[in-house]
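Handover notes (outgoing to incoming on-call)

Open items:
1. SusD-like starch-binding protein associating with outer membrane: sequence verified, structure written out, both below. Nothing else pending on this one.
2. Nothing else urgent.
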Amino acid sequence: MRIINNTFRYFIFTLGVLSLTVIQSCRQELDINKDPNNPTNVPIYTLLTSSQVNMGYIMGGEATRMPASIVQYYGGHRGQPLDYSRYNITSSSADGLWRNVYDALMDLKEIQNKGTTDGDRIYVGISQVLQAYVFSVTTDVFGDIPFSTALQGTGNITPAYDKQETIYPALIKMIEDGIVNINSLTGMKPGTDDVIYNGNTDSWIRFANSLKLRLLNHLSKRSPGESAAFLATNPALIDVYDTNATVKFGTAASNANPIYQFDVLSGRKDNAVASTIVDKMKLLNDPRIDVYFKKVVNNGAGFQGQYRGNVPGQDTDDSGENLFSRVGSAYASTDSPVVLMSAAEVNFIKSEIYFRSGNNVKSKESYVAAITQDFTALGIANKASAYIGSSKVAYNNSLGRIMEQKWITMFQGAYESWVDWRRTGFPVFTTMPSFNMTGNTIPRRLSYPQIEINVNTSSLQNGPGIPVPFESLKAKVWWDQ
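SusD-like starch-binding protein associating with outer membrane structure tokens:
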């Protein structure tokens, strides 16, 4: 069960023993003779459900909030969201994200271990793909991270840090091994315990290949030909919206969408969306604005019924919701899904790859498909053609146009938009927070968390080093150099 405002508890954080955040499925009966605080033999199908839902909360919650402020999707007006918009991001800011991703990884690793022992290779493969996903987001956010000696539980609670340039090839190999295991069709097959694809192995292969394409495209500064070479093999990809990789949520407070929990159920009312994206969508007459954002609710300042964002870093209090819009129904309703990868994203990746290869015909084709698939997924397919045909949106043989539209589309995946901005420089952000902690430099990574500074000091010192407050935010990760 999830508790509002991210107070969901774990028995031990970063790289410790198996996370206890287990959601009991209907396939498991309560045994009063077993200690619920020592789940030594949790069924693999229960672990799959809990780890996928937990992953959805992380990617839609902690992994989103700081990057969403950095790439000017969010414009918090007070408290923690305002700090993020001003780049007042400290080591302590990253504690929750770090703890939760490694707890999720421990559960996924346990699925791999159990599946390997029992011969359930489909579960093993799904676990490998999801581990690669979580590890990739983590290294993209922080840079060098514990990887090769991580996830050993009490066997190694102070793992060494691996360099990102060695992590990326290992993640590609993990995905490829996952594909082999899923394709084997060996052992027990997931069913409703798989909340992402309901056991559809074809969809899992598409997700795995799409993730591989994403990671290879991240290397556009380092190895620009690798993504094109892989795409040329014609891999099965997430290419239509009904194969999107999403984690579904419910209508009860305990299993509601993470943005809805943070923005609505918590009662905080300190976040808002940024004027940067709101004004851009208004300029383009983007019909997605109706589902991306809520109109200003109250009439105290005369803005009721308008879409209006907060200027990043501005601290005018809006606890009464008189001034600024909030995240809308598409991504912040109680049962809105968290999107891990979409057909829209994959087609934008293809468009970028084809553009860099000089194939503007296929680049345009993929660009059009990307926007069309996003509109279709949002239930407004009938509005796609007119939007794509408008002069400010139509494909114009430029990387800037591709990445601007991808930035709008990826509102639900801010951590990935942050990768795109660091790789390409698009979109160009012309508004900087008037007060910020980095000397007007947009952050390019997060600082390592305080829990690592406290608990894993030696490994940090022997690896990337102890972070320097605010200065470390400016340092580029390996693929960004």
